[in-house]
Description:
796 residues, alpha+beta, 44 strands, 20% helix, globular
Amino acid sequence: MLRATPFTEGWILRHPDDAGAALPAAVPGCVHTDLLAAGLIPDPFLGRNEADVAWVGRREWTYERRLDTGSEHERTDLVFDGLDTAAEITLDGRRLSRVRNMHRSYRFDVTGRRGRLAVRFDSAYTEAEAVRARVGERPAAYAEPFAHIRKMACSFGWDWGPTLVTAGIWRPVRLESWSTARIDRVRPLVTVEGGTGVVEVHIEVERIGSEAELAVEARVGGVRARAALDGMAGVVRLRVPDADLWWPRGYGGQPLYELELTLLHGAEALDVRRHRIGFRTVELDTSADAHGSGFTLVVNGERLFARGVNWIPDDVFPSRITPERYRKRLGQAAAAGVDLVRVWGGGIYESEDFYDACDELGLLVWQDFPFACAAYPEEQPLRGEVEAEARENVVRLMPHPSLVLWNGNNENLWGFRDWGWERKLAGDSWGEGYYLGLLPRLVAELDPTRPYTAGSPWSGSWAHHPNDPAHGTHHSWEVWNRRDWADYRLNVPRFVAEFGWQAPPAYATLRRALPGEELAPDSPGMLHHQKAADGNGKLERGLARHFALPEGDFGRWHYLTQLNQARAVAAGIEHWRSHWPVCAGTVVWQLNDCWPVTSWAAIDGDGREKPLYHELKRLYADRLLTLRARDGGLVLAAVNQSATPWAGELTLRRMSVTGEVVASTRTDLGAAARTVAHVPVPPELVPSGPKEFLVADADGLRALHFPVPDRDIPCPRPEFDVSVAPGAVTVTARTLVRDLLLQADRLDPAARADKGLVTLLPGERVTIGVDGWKIPHGQEAADAVRSALYCVEPAR
């Protein structure tokens, strides 16, 4: 039987310029984390230390340890699951291999060999610049040479990420000892036929010699099947009657079946592989209709409005991301109502732990191939590396039922058309051959059970503009970059794969990341942790359209920018969900951060939840009320994404900002399952000026409509009472209180509130659960809470 032995202990790290000097090396890990552990570099996440450690990414580094491969087996392999990125592997000075791809694994025959094993990493800059010199310059959204090396692009920096160019043995290493044959590759094609789960397992093996007769036995769901191998490959088919279907969260359960494969030589078991699979079907409906051409995911025959978030690597040093951290972050997504996670193309193919968690949580995975925001050369050595990594990762990930879509790239088809690339390229290759040729061919060959799309955004063909909102996927970045978030309401894309608005991280995150700094929007550390071009300018202009700008009050600026982020995303999602099924999904940019930074994330780099996160719980709930301006009047949209009809009573109140009910009515509300119902607002209930607003209530849900921006609303100064009890803060409004927010981390960095922004009418109250705060006594507790409470105030 094949025996796998971890090979992660005993490594040291050397730099060629420091003869004899060595550090303990953590494997998996990277040079930066080893230098941090040794106290040789400052934490690059703090202050402006990022710039002080830039030298690390421009030097060579060598990992070493002794190799001894004595074994009773015929063959011993040294297996690296991930090397970052350009490296030469030697054993006692003799080269085993030269590698140049972070996204691949590597296997070397080291049978009977022993001695000094060394993995010498070139600077990723050196490798990328050498390839660039060979194949030529290519345009990109950023100046760094990330398109010329198969490495996590965002380690070279992004508009939310630091430039920390890593090197190291970033995934596990092991020795595998085996005899006769081993399982090399397993491709389970899983689908459903008339209630029967069907698994067609394609298996490939590596042999020592060709004489042995081999067979494979497969088991799943109490069913067993066996097939002989024809040389190096074989196929075994299983049918599981009455298989329980795997569903996205909110649509059903997530039953997982263990698929066990045993490679046999006669009665001897040579190797065993186990995968968890789920039975489900997935389609992508891109058919033409009266509105253009759609982009609707269909799982088990059920058409979905995808409630999505974009995922970036959760740490700029991915080797630090533990299974527990994946599960926590993805659990936060599921708790916010998310049912789809897009793994963005400037990052990595994530570890098995990520996809395992998505399988269990019912989170659909849209997987980008790692190409983003650049023209990518198609010449060697890159083309061969792209094909090798794609083949490996399609096969590695395809057992996961959560994976429902392969996507060729992020914004590169759009960039070719709109960002001046076509002229600059002057006929040079730029990646089109990958996205419209190589990758769809590989997916069709290896994983025909899943759909493929060439890019995001992409309209389906060059017959339409790549970012045409009427066709396929759309990225909405005119809003934020140049236009106000109110403009989200001007069109109805078929599927919004990226949109968002920036806000700073939580206050406690800033205090940790910028120790000793007097915080201000333009203080040195704040500016360093703002990576977007003119990011603060866009924040300020976005605020000015809706609020009176606070002067010299960082706390209020911090609150208003976080509020504006939540308002912006709400404006988009409420509008687009109200237009289901024309619009079939929204994927917020972005769920998470890789370090403490002002960004579009809902969860900041320290894992703290911004107000946007809590707002997503409302926006992505099965049922949502929203008031929309439409056809010259107001309409209430009742979005019902649940499996049961929604029937109840709807109350509409036209109110003054001082709390009086000017007019009201009650009416029946009904929305069939998976539909949107529209109720016209009677003209007499439409607010008649800035001193009035409309309130809609049904089944504990509420929608509000204010006809003018906050800066123009003559609200009275908000007044409210506060009471504090163990684990809870209760606020009772004496006036209209708009977007009340308890910033629990101001009470204690470890504290967390269970609610975000809340609007209270006069006489209403809300109780906010608070964990992680040791409550002081008496008045001190109430004073502390009041200092951490923010709400919209009238212009000064």
